Amino acid sequence: MLGSMQAEPILRALADTTRLRIMRLISSMELAVGEIAQVMGQSQPRVSRHVAILCDAGLAERRREGSWIFLRAVSGSQNGLLAAVRRVLDLAEAEDAQLGVLCEGDRDKLAAIRAARETQAQDYFAAHAESWDELRRLHSADNLVEQALVTALDGPLGHVLDVGTGTGRIAELFSDRAARLVALDKSPAMLRLARARLQHLGGERVEMIQGDFTNLPLPAASMDTVLFHQVLHFAQNPAEALREAARVTRPGGRVAIVDFSAHQHEELRERYAHVRLGFTDGQMDALLRDAGYEPASPVALEGGELVVKIWIAKRLPAARKAA
């Protein structure tokens, strides 16, 4: 698609001040169309018409997340024409005083939106702090688990998929070692929290995707590292989730699973919607091998009633997949 792009529709799309302002906004972060309308002070239908022109020209792309539509600038890293457009937009704002004033005002309003996102995240955490603390008291402290995961998952991580990203904490933890991050969650509400946490990374480095771990909206062999942090115990069929993870993991890539060792806290099913009461090492070993991974020795953190385990496994070439 990128190789067939033509200059004329791009130049036509940019021949409008509103669309120039939209491009300057989405060059810094992915935004909901409603948020763009809020920044612009225009109706959402009107902004949607401008968005359609930008998308038709190949300058931007839309993505649905629940009832929200998000817009992001198409990366120019693999297309010289798009890279040139980005440089021209930078220069246009610097040289055109009127456009510069408008874009600066847009960024001020965008900063207010970002602040509102942070407040929303804090309010959510506060509302759920008591129930989360009850669960945390049953297992090792989060910082100890995170330190152990960082140690176990050594070296460069390449393209990283954080399955069930939740608040985005684990994606943030590995952001310095990832060439690119894909943060996936089934819940639009959780993705909004993750977006608030990860927005400083910018759209070029992190992508938010709504999706299910049994049907990942990603190409085969597109990820180097797949993370499941306290996610797999929600799976009705963990084998299906790991087979799908293996599908998107490149040969030699890794999967990292942080979850509970098998336990008898039946109340977690009702109070926290846990489907699985943890996993034994034997269960996890079989799940990983059947999916096409070669497991390493697990790491155990036994600082509470619930033992947290870290399982790391390497993706085997298809021909070597365990029978």
Radius of gyration: 22 Å
CATH fold type of the largest domain: Rossmann fold
What structural class do the secondary elements suggest? alpha/beta
Please give the domain count: 2
The profile of the biggest β sheet is: 8 strands, mixed
In N-to-C order, the SSE pattern is HHEHHEEHHHEHEHEEHEHHEEE
Helix fraction, binned, reads: 40-55%
Characterize this entry briefly.
This protein is α/β, with parallel strands linked by helices. The chain contains twelve helices and eleven strands.
List its traits:
323 residues; alpha/beta; Arc Repressor Mutant, subunit A; Rossmann fold; 2 domains; 8-stranded mixed β-sheet; 3-stranded antiparallel β-sheet; 11 strands; 20% strand; elongated
Structure characterization notes:
- With 323 residues, this protein is an alpha/beta fold.
- The chain is 46% helix and 20% strand.
- The chain has twelve helices and eleven strands.
- The chain has helices at residues 7-13, 17-26, 33-40, 44-56, 80-95, 97-136, 142-152, 169-173, 188-198, 238-248, 267-272, 281-291; strands at residues 31-32, 60-65, 68-73, 158-163, 178-185, 206-210, 223-229, 249-260, 293-295, 299-301, 308-315.
- Helix 5 (80-95) crosses helix 6 and helix 6 (97-136) crosses helix 9 (188-198).
- The protein is elongated, with a radius of gyration of 22 Å.
